[in-house]
Amino acid sequence: MAANEEIIEEILTCSSSANEEEIVHIIQSNEAAGEQDTSQDAGPEEEGESQEHKELVFWVPALLMVGREQQRITVTQEELKRRVAPPECLSQTMLLSLLRLSKEKGRELKQTLAKNGIKKLTSKSAVISCFTKLTEMEAAQLAEDYFYLASKHLRLREINREILRSRGGWENFESQANQTKSLLQDILREIESRDTNLSLITHGFSPLIIRAVIDILIEIITFRET
Length: 226
What we know:
Blueprint: E1 6-13, E2 22-29, H1 33-39, H2 44-49, E3 54-61, E4 72-76, H3 77-84, H4 92-98, H5 106-115, H6 136-153, H7 156-166, H8 170-193, H9 196-201, H10 205-222
Antiparallel strand pairs: 1-2, 2-3, 3-4
Helix pairs in contact: 6-10, 7-10, 8-10
């Protein structure tokens, strides 16, 4: 962010018991004050190049950060656009829940979104699941934490040794292991190329967790002790 970038803050106080603190809405303008002064003397082309661009950002309390409950999660304008668009089509009520705002803030939220180009809200969300209230950042963190815990606590070496023992050792299993690895990688590519809707509904969790599981399986079948 440029040092002279103009920042306008709109503060909405939430009365919800789940979030009694303030929710801060930041509208960032990429047009610096110095550029505004310069544009007054600029020609038509330069004036066109200095059009103001605004970005809406919400900071909301984290739901899944155990021990870090005071941490704020960023919800960007682009994320909100994805959430109100198909396949999820979040309603105003679900947006309030996502942003940890009380129902009384519904009208104010709708006006704020409309001012920033998000005008079409459905009366009913198309898909509701346990992922609905998670932000994209939280969904990604959940997948990353799973991969970390699985890598650390799943007994991969013991599983690997048992697989090799039951198949007559690495020499007898090597060809099958390499074929299985190649197959799993092909499956992953096919899933990732067709996972758009599931990825949007789970806010990026799906491709991350599928890749994590396949990486763990590949590690089990290809590991060789030295």
